[in-house]
Amino acid sequence: MKKFRIGTDDFKEFIEDGGYFVDKSLLIRDIIEGNKVTLIPRPRRFGKTLNMTMLRYFFERSEESRSYLFENCAIANYPDYVQHQGQYPVIYISLKDLKRDSYEHFIEATRVEIGSLYKNFAEVQPVLSDGSRERFLRIIMEEATLNDLYSSLKDLITHCHQYYKKPVIVLIDEYDTPMIEAFSHGYYDKMAGFMRSWLGAGLKPEYGQVLFRAVVTGILRIAKESIFSDLNNLDVASPLMIGPYADKFGFTDPELSLILSAFQAEDHAAIIRDWYNGYSFGGHTIYNPWSVISYIQAIPNPPGPKWLNTSSNALVYEELEAGGLEIKRDLEVLLAGEELRYPLSENITFTDIGRNTVNIWSLLYYSGYLKAEDPQSDLRGRITYRLSIPNREISYAYEHFIESLYRNTEGGLDSLLNSFLGKRPILQIGPVLQDLTRDLVSMYDLAKLPEAVFHAFVLGLLANLRTVYEIRSNAEAGFGRADILMIPRTRDYPIAYIIEFKTTDGRRNTEISSKALGQIKKQEYEAALSNAGIPDDLIVRLAIILQGKEVRVETG
């Protein structure tokens, strides 16, 4: 029985254990043909570590031959590239475990991590000068000074080249993990200074033949001025770019067909496409590999969020929650299943994420929460992209975000949803909405565009019902546009809803309610529901009236 070996991201262990390998070995060819230093940003769990360890076992010099690991791989058909196998000293380090709550604790952990790395190259000591040997031993003994750590990558590259008489390959996996943690815990500037010194000193272009290739992976491309200011030899293999790396992370359509055939799961293709497809890297349709693997291994169990449960979504949720009015209105568009168009920044500046809308959407894209397609130049010459939610799994992520906002409103959200599901009287949504609005909606935002902000707020709440309702925002209906239409997806919940929002200064409450309900009838918004086969007696018309932070709901 074939197995994917979920959780095994060491290539050698994976192959020796008989894991089903989706062949990405031509990445080796791309690296050999590529730039001196390459940064490859991709979302988490998209195969970065497995690919990096594959590169390690291919290039790394060792006493025993490792050619058997690649006998059945595509790279074996390219003898010019196979000549590079086992020829280089390889410095491999992953920073994924260097997440600490303070800069001091990060430095302590880094002493241990780099000390362990140096121990792998203890044999180089005979060629070192006395001063270099003293620093080498301090690092091995985990007694490195801060200056020792700053220069540790550069020094190790130099030592390896000096001893082995070969150019060096450097592989740094998940370089931005400690950066993200530093941002969350308030020591980002110190961390940026360390990484700028450590990476900049080690990967500078003037090393010439000392460095053969360096590959750096992570989720984000952090702004060059923050980290990579000294690396004018850096090539960034952005997922937005057409190029050789575009199909090397995640599963393509042809690869998925082979997987489904191998596991006799061809009849699950539509489910996988609905739940886990939707990414677009360099023009390739890409499936989330972790989710596909997890689903196939769990057959006959039903689909569900797989990737979302593998790591914290705290940074994404924090930035969405802190976003201003524009973010809230754009979320309304996404939650309605519609598209946005924005430029994306390939240089994330953490300190500006919350103050720059482009940075928030860029963070969401690079983290795997958005799909970007159809690049076009706007009037200012910027490249903009059509942004949308990739698939059903990521829809759950946004729903989880909404739930996280209301986790302290005990019973409030459930009561609201139960009213729409017919488990509570429909007019009880008035008091429930009142409580949620009082506790969660900012008067600062309401003062600017009260109806639009409240519309987005309610739409976010209703997103939790997307599995049983098709929810349309500002949808064409009859002779106008309905604020919200809720069309049943299942016979279990047959009631359809038309919702119209109005704001008032409080002087004509009854008149405003009548106007809202009258607008629904006059514009014949129910036509969209009738066309969907819903009889009039199963259509509920709601007027939701907002006065400051006071909410009133009427039906008619």
Automatic annotation (TrEMBL):
<protein>
    <submittedName>
        <fullName>AAA family ATPase</fullName>
    </submittedName>
</protein>
<dbReference type="InterPro" id="IPR018631">
    <property type="entry name" value="AAA-ATPase-like_dom"/>
</dbReference>
<dbReference type="Pfam" id="PF08011">
    <property type="entry name" value="PDDEXK_9"/>
</dbReference>
<feature type="domain" description="AAA-ATPase-like">
    <location>
        <begin position="5"/>
        <end position="228"/>
    </location>
</feature>
<dbReference type="Pfam" id="PF09820">
    <property type="entry name" value="AAA-ATPase_like"/>
</dbReference>
<dbReference type="InterPro" id="IPR027417">
    <property type="entry name" value="P-loop_NTPase"/>
</dbReference>
<dbReference type="InterPro" id="IPR012547">
    <property type="entry name" value="PDDEXK_9"/>
</dbReference>
